[in-house]
Amino acid sequence: MEHPYEKFLRRERIPHIWCEGCGNGIILGCFARALDELKMDLDKVVVVSGIGCIGRVSGYTNTDSYHTTHGRPIAFATGVKLANPELKVVVISGDGDLFAIGGNHFIHAARRNMDLQVICANNFIYGMTGGQHGPTTPIDARTTTTPYGNIEHTFNLVHLAAACGAVYVARWTALHVRRLTESIKKALQKEGFSFIEVVSPCPEIFGRYNKMETSIKMMQWFREVSEVRHFSDPAKADITPQKIVVGEFVDAEKPSYSRLLKEMTAKVQTQAQ
Amino acid sequence: MSDDRGKGALSGKRFMMGDVACAEGALAAGCRFFAGYPITPATEIAERMAQRLPQVGGVYIQMEDEIGSMAAIIGASYAGVKSMTATSGPGFSLMMENIGLAVMTETPCVVVNVMRAGPSTGQPTMPGQQDVMQARWGSHGDYEIIALAPSSVQEMFDLTVEAFNLAETYRVPVMVLADEIVGHMWERVNIPSAESIKVVNRRKPTASPEEYTPFRPGDNLVPPMVCFGEGYHFHATGLTHDERGRPQTESAEAQQKLVQRLCDKIRRNADKIFRVEKTMLEDAEVAVVAYGIVSRAALSAVRRARATGIKAGLFRLITLWPFPEKEVAHVARKVKAIVVPEMNCGQMVREVERAAKETPVIFLSKLGEEPHKPSEILEAIRGTQKR
Amino acid sequence: MPVRTWRKPLDAEKIKVPKGEVYIIKNRCKGCGFCIEFCPKEVLEESKEINERGIHPPKVRDEDKCALCGFCTAVCPDFAIFTVEKNCDGGC
To answer: Model's pTM, two decimal places?
Structure first.
């Protein structure tokens, strides 16, 4: 008997390289289920990822996919979407890739309301390179580059996305599998720039350095401290060890870049005649 | 600017700026996506594309930086649309990492660098030829690219068309290395009718999705290319990969095979790629090797030398990369000396020296607002006669 | 406020709780334990056998309790477990 998501995966590449208990596999599963429930035409889906553990996801989806340089999946995806608006272009990447090196591309794509869906696997750390801190590492957390505790304030990603103008902003943890799937489905059908933050366990590195040595401990932490609160103020939704506010924060309507571009181009061509 | 609204391709005799001719060349070659960032002296290319692309149903986007611009044109190319960006030195440096990505994923695209005086911010409105080595070696890792050096507004048009054709043939980023003078000067351009311009498109595979192997090369060492949305569900990555596009981060064999082929596909096809222009070289005793705007002063110097009885000739490089070593070596064997004027501290001259072997090479550096005067080159030519 | 029911719902007879069959792809399991930990009906437990990774994959403790919620399918990061509806025409 075959696993129900088998057809969304590049079979010969499974099992994937991610660690035991890593949230990336859960995100991939929720994405596959969203595609399944929406009956999306896989020929028209393009998965773009950057560098990082989650960056390997594009190698596992049975769709056209591209693995860019660090921080650039959103810029690459912009080119793809504008060149062929029929394609459904989804960016799945990590907290460092999207918000450290890639921060500028994120804020501008959100500002322009590009027709892209961006799913961020936020595991609070740079896992692929061995566990350095990043823009979402909690203050006081231990990583290889913050051996005495992190002294940097952390990014509130949903606040950033909302402030930049994203029309759909949601946050879930890897434990909220069903609601995450629903959010992904909603984002895939929504015009404009959608952002979903998935608070994801990295038990091997982040968990181990920060007293949550097993994957179950991290997931249990999510279960204890997450609070579903739809449409609360994203500015007040910082993630702390005591609370993770999850839910949808923004669900707005705004004409996307593609729509405005289409209208402008049509007008220019009509004027020319 | 002339009112070309609604016209797909321009044609006929026009009087235009080099940058504008470059943009028109791109459109004539079928470019329908431009992502860029304003930078002197290439901004006019972006502005012209912003005006013309919506007229022809293409897309212009001004990205937040040059890094994003290069990433976006790779994306557009993979989605099946011919794409281009244009920049100058500082932006060229920013683009380097993604130029490597374009090389590694064998993406056809065109990068125009209207060179200015560097390094760093330098002199934005002054010409330079200081980026020619960077074009070849700028990104990390081992690879080959193609670079063309226009020396007139007509060539800004023609060589941009050629750049797209080469990019599509060899699935490689092709650079158009203009300079601020060629970019900003106005000259007459003869634009052929659209039907008469030769346009090459990327080769498509004949295999079905089940049989297709994305990076298996054809006879010319270049794999046929599919694009997103055609049902092939393929994967492309900047990691070293095998012919199926699968990352192979631990295989020496995969690294050897892929990197060697990325170099060989240009090197082994170099004879079909390189272009030079030889003037009065058949009986020349001294050759001037030059490119870009400097080659025009060099031509004038060569003519004046001939008028005074010196057997001088001009070897103009049109392709800077791959460097036409054999041709230069051949010329070097026939002449007694070679003069290389460049607007830098010595870049292409090194390649000339390497190819010329025993033949003495005299390098003429000029840094600053104007290229070499013909009289300066003539003096160097005369200097070789005293030996 | 949590809903407390002190009598059976009127349509209790009409609602059939589905039953599930659990399939475990043992060699994909990496031993994270999510399926065992988060199954609402405690259908699974760690087995004693060892798969090719040296991990104890889960095993079904009591399949009769499985209500086809699908949580294990959704939360497994490795596509190593899934449930399929049991055909209950002949009674389960």
So the answer is: 0.93
